[in-house]
Design goal:
Order of helices and strands: EEEEEEEEHEHEEEEEEHEHEHEEHE
Strand order of the largest sheet: 2-3-9-4-5
Number of strands: 20
Bound molecules: zinc ion
Shape: globular
CATH topology of the largest domain: lpxc deacetylase, domain 1
């Protein structure tokens, strides 16, 4: 049986919020089975827990932002990606500001904190969802598609009119070790002219070369360069895993993305759940450990 997991102990992390530029203190605490990932703003007197679910997403313009009754928690995607990548199902996350710390713009810092805390298996099986029918959403030139597959796989491509980025593709067969090695270190990226514009609008106040790859028309401004030659598209995979994590279940299917972003990723999860014939839920209570690495048993593979 593949059991749900939570943290072995609590973790506290402080860091800058990308948009406010203010330090946010965040504390992750082990939570009981079937809790899922729940955020709570501790800086507000009247604040209700916000379940990290696709239907609580209230804004996708600059990040994935959750909200409930006017209270929001922004930039959840890299932390959600780290939790999903490591297979952590149940955690309560308290934070004293409106956004999750950006750390270095990747999920590496979150992965390190989570690995240091350790994980414990809980009593119930993990929730596993097998995609049965392909679903697809489009916006202009972009598309996101989820297809039946015997395992969780992400294939992404991007196409930017920029000499250092241009067209990049990356396919990732999901696995915990692979996530840690190939995906979690990829940083978010921004174009200098966009950063200048956001700053003029009072946004991205915490943004710097310490938490994003920044490119101008010809070069990468970060003196240390890139972590992977195709770091840009790998970050798209990281983001998409974080957005898919908002399904609240382990998804067995092939996620295919071209020029996608948070809005499209969220729309795809809405599309998936819009018709119960699109998926099948299975209990991960079989004596099969392959679920941990994103596989479904052949008998469960979408037919
Ligand atoms: Zn991102």
């Amino acid at each position: 049986m593949i059991r749900q997991q939570t943290l072995a102990k609590s973790i506290s992390v402080s860091g800058l919020g990308l948009h406010t530029g203010r330090v946010v203190r965040l504390r992750m605490t082990p939570a009981p089975v079937d809790t899922g990932i729940v955020f709570l703003r501790t800086d507000l007197a009247r604040s209700l827990p916000i379940q990290a679910r696709y239907d609580n997403v209230v804004d996708t313009r600059l990040c994935t932002c959750l909200g409930r009754d006017g209270v929001t928690v922004g930039t959840v995607e890299h932390l959600m990606s780290a939790l999903y990548g490591l297979g952590i199902d149940n955690v309560t996350i308290d934070l004293d500001g409106p956004e999750v710390p950006i750390l270095d713009g990747s999920a590496q810092g979150w992965v390190e904190h989570l690995l240091e805390a350790g994980q414990v298996a809980q009593r119930r099986p993990r929730k596993v969802l097998v995609v049965r029918r392909a679903v697809e959403v489009r916006m202009g030139d972009s598309f996101a598609r989820l297809e039946p597959s015997s395992r969780f796989r992400v294939s992404a491509s991007i196409d930017f009119d920029h000499p250092l980025i241009s067209r990049q593709s990356f396919s990732f067969d999901f696995g915990r070790a692979g996530f840690v090695e190939q995906i979690c270190k990829a940083r978010t990226f921004a174009f200098k002219r966009e950063v200048d514009y956001l700053r003029s609008q009072g946004l991205a106040k915490g943004g710097s070369l310490d938490n994003a790859i920044v490119v101008d028309d010809f070069s990468i401004l970060n003196p240390e360069g890139l972590r992977y030659q195709d770091e840009f598209v790998r970050h798209k995979v990281l983001d998409a895993i974080g957005d898919l994590a908002l399904s609240g279940e382990q998804v067995i299917g092939h996620l295919r993305l071209d020029r996608s972003g948070h809005a499209l990723n969220n729309l795809l999860v809405h599309e998936l759940f819009s018709d119960p014939r699109n998926f099948r839920r299975i209990a991960a209570d079989q004596p099969d450990t392959q679920f941990d690495e994103g596989f479904a048993l052949p008998a469960f593979a979408a037919s």
